[in-house]
Specification:
This is Dienelactone hydrolase domain-containing protein. With 118 residues, this protein is α+β, with helices and mostly antiparallel strands. Helices cover 47% and strands 15% of the residues. It has one domain. The chain contains four helices and four strands; from the N terminus they run βββαβααα. It has a four-stranded mixed sheet with strand order 1-2-4-3.
Length: 118
């Protein structure tokens, strides 16, 4: 299922539909890396178990798009220690906006819209 726009919000989300009538709904909140393929895979697996799943992209508005998140993840898993060391300051820089109180207030409002959608 493609990305969807959550009504009455600034968020897009990955939606995974079950093969039959849903048993219920789940919201999958991504990790620090954002809405990367791993999170979409988790949503797909829950959908295969019968749940309607919505995985909102709550970090792109703070500067961590799925592409940036994947790059940061890959840096932290690099076998070269020198490369791994470059990840920490870059992560602090990219995630700075997400640590601001304004972001937290914004995210709560946006996530309420996700709950309403589901």
């Amino acid at each position: 299922m493609p990305m969807i726009q959550i009504p009455h919000s600034e968020l897009t989300a990955y939606r995974a539909d079950p093969p039959a009538a849903p048993k219920g709904g789940l919201i999958v909140i991504h990790e620090i890396w954002g809405l990367v393929d791993h999170i979409r895979d988790i949503a797909d697996r829950f959908a295969a178990e019968g749940y309607l799943v919505v995985a909102p992209d709550i970090l792109s508005n703070a500067g961590v798009s799925p592409t940036v998140g994947q790059e940061l993840h890959d840096l932290t898993k690099n076998p070269d220690e020198a490369v791994r060391m470059t990840a920490q300051p870059l992560m602090r820089e990219k995630l700075a906006a997400s640590r601001e109180p304004e972001y937290g207030a914004w995210a709560i409002g946006q996530l309420r819209a996700v709950v309403d959608y589901l």
